[in-house]
Amino acid sequence: MNELVRAVKQAAVEAVKADGPMAVSFGTVTSASPLKIQVDQKKTLTEAQLILTNNVRDFNVDMTVDHQTESQSGGSGEAAFAAHQHAYKGRKTFKVHLALKAGEKVILISCDGGQKYIVLDRWEAP
Questions:
Q1: Does the pTM exceed 0.85?
Q2: Judging by beta carbons within 10 Å of its beta carbon (0-12, 13-18, 19+), is residue 28 exposed, middle or buried?
Q3: DSSP H or E run through 64
Q4: Distances (CA, A) of 22 to 9, 59, 113
Q5: Is the distance from CB of 42 to CB of 78 less than 8 angstroms?
Q6: Residues 6+ away with beta carbon under 8 Å from 92
Q7: What is the CB neighbour count within 10 angstroms for residue 57?
Q8: How do the pLDDT tens digits run along the chain, 126 residues long?
């Protein structure tokens, strides 16, 4: 959420500089790669025009874990395959998969005189 606050603040500053207010609009993702969002019949936004929040993109997050794996056993009967667990501890990096997909509907805020758009979040999945 920190990133969202910074992006909105930046958009507000740019809107004041451009003498144009920010405006909320809605769009539909027409392509995931390269990312394209259609705002109306005549306007399609490309990646260069978009500022993505973590709500609409893949990102990595560091987490601290401290638990045991589930008990698993092999099937041969040998001691090496007996039921066992392993400790799973420490700081780990996980990838969060939230990238936009074609057909998803999104909420946008225009800034920089309509040259840039912050993609806030999804509002409806296909």
A1: no
A2: middle
A3: strand 59-68
A4: 11, 26, 8
A5: no
A6: 62, 63, 64, 65
A7: 15
A8: 677 778 777 777 776 666 667 889 999 999 999 999 999 999 999 999 999 999 999 999 999 999 888 887 665 656 666 777 788 899 999 999 999 999 999 999 998 778 899 999 999 766
